[in-house]
Fold this sequence. Notes:
The complex is a heterodimer. Chain A is an all-alpha fold. Helices cover about 80% and strands about 0% of the residues of chain A. Chain A has helices at about 5-15, 25, 35-55, 65-85, 100-125, 130-155, 160-170, 170-185, 190-220, 220-240. In chain A, helix 3 (about 35-55) packs antiparallel against helix 6 (about 130-155), helix 3 packs parallel to helix 10 (about 220-240) and helix 5 runs parallel beside helix 8. The longest helix of chain A is centred in the middle third of the chain and has 28 residues, at about 100-125. Chain A starts with a helix and ends with a helix. Chain B has helices spanning about 5-20, 35-60, 65-85, 95-125, 130-155, 160-170, 175-185, 185-220, 220-240; strands at about 90, 95. In chain B, strands 1-2 form a two-stranded antiparallel ribbon. Helices cover about 85% and strands about 0% of the residues of chain B. Chain B is an all-alpha fold. Classes of the chains: A mainly alpha, B mainly alpha. The interface of A and B includes residues 70, 77, 78, 88 and 205 of A.
Amino acid sequence: xxxxxxxxxxxxxxxxxxxxxxxxxxxxxxxxxxxxxxxxxxxxxxxxxxxxxxxxxxxxxxxxxxxxxxxxxxxxxxxxxxxxxxxxxxxxxxxxxxxxxxxxxxxxxxxxxxxxxxxxxxxxxxxxxxxxxxxxxxxxxxxxxxxxxxxxxxxxxxxxxxxxxxxxxxxxxxxxxxxxxxxxxxxxxxxxxxxxxxxxxxxxxxxxxxxxxxxxxxxxxxxxxxxxxxxxxxxxxxxxxxx
Amino acid sequence: xxxxxxxxxxxxxxxxxxxxxxxxxxxxxxxxxxxxxxxxxxxxxxxxxxxxxxxxxxxxxxxxxxxxxxxxxxxxxxxxxxxxxxxxxxxxxxxxxxxxxxxxxxxxxxxxxxxxxxxxxxxxxxxxxxxxxxxxxxxxxxxxxxxxxxxxxxxxxxxxxxxxxxxxxxxxxxxxxxxxxxxxxxxxxxxxxxxxxxxxxxxxxxxxxxxxxxxxxxxxxxxxxxxxxxxxxxxxxxxxxxx
Lengths: 243, 243
């Protein structure tokens, strides 16, 4: 299969997996607050594991370009939040039914998906097995994230099937950015350390700004730490075998 | 000169360098809750970066031993934290939560120095010809670790900068102590190294997620915490990797 098609295929799988986020909602009416906390912690740990794998794989890259790329990625995430007025948005307000909140929550999830697409694309450029693994890690990450989003959407009266569809739709950016990133690095290999740094910076910024703050209110500090570290460790270990 | 003395002496110099990390805090007077939160975020970023490097080094010797070591490190700090929380403790002029956190960071960084000491000894194992280069590299690498300790101790402890420097150096003393046996029994210690590096990484990451990040996010706004952690983390990885 042509490499670009591989990127397209696996990033599509990652985005489509978000639909599974509604499964807990089918099993019970409303997830408990603690489960939301653990979902967020799993999502955060997987992102941190992805950032770790990228940094380790980029060990031989120019530190200056990598560091500058990180600055750009962090700057992108910060600016995206600032410009959309979502920097203090709580992504877990199940009972907030205001139209403004609904629009912002979808916007945040859509913006959040973009650097994850960059992550898949840059990992594919480093090595196809790493790229496939990264796409699968992001796919798993998309599930708990979509659970929290779908819980909000269904609480507003939306049908579960539509919530699943919207969860996938907010992740379409992953496919676009994965293919775009892969193409850019293919056309100009010198961009690799910049793009890798960008992905790492944005991933770490987003997991701290979006996922962790709520976790700590939803469940105990110790369980947040353990779940996050476990998710991160699994990604680091499995990815390490591929590298 | 006796190579054992050379190794001990050089490793002692690297331990003393840790004290330099306290210097920037000589110029910080303010200890508002927000300043404490920023210090926590700074320490969190530095420790996450350091643990990424430890994981990277450990997996070069063996992935599974590193992971086993990391599990041990998490368990150890978890146990220490639980043990401390059941007791009345004092540290400097503080007591209660602040004192427990101060003790915990000293324990975490001391434990991590055992692993680093072994790494130094093993690095010298090839002979002492590269001694100066290795010593300089590790001394420089220790300075931000002293910064991390001081960032936790100084705002809480109501203890002076000199005493912060003292605790930083003390937490690094296991380095020369462990470097000597590791130098003499390189092959034995090389086998133990991934476990030790993993242990140190697990201890640090757990401290970050269970104490530093929740407290930082509690007292400062999300963008500030996310900016500080993501930028210092990557800076730390690049700094320790390339110096």
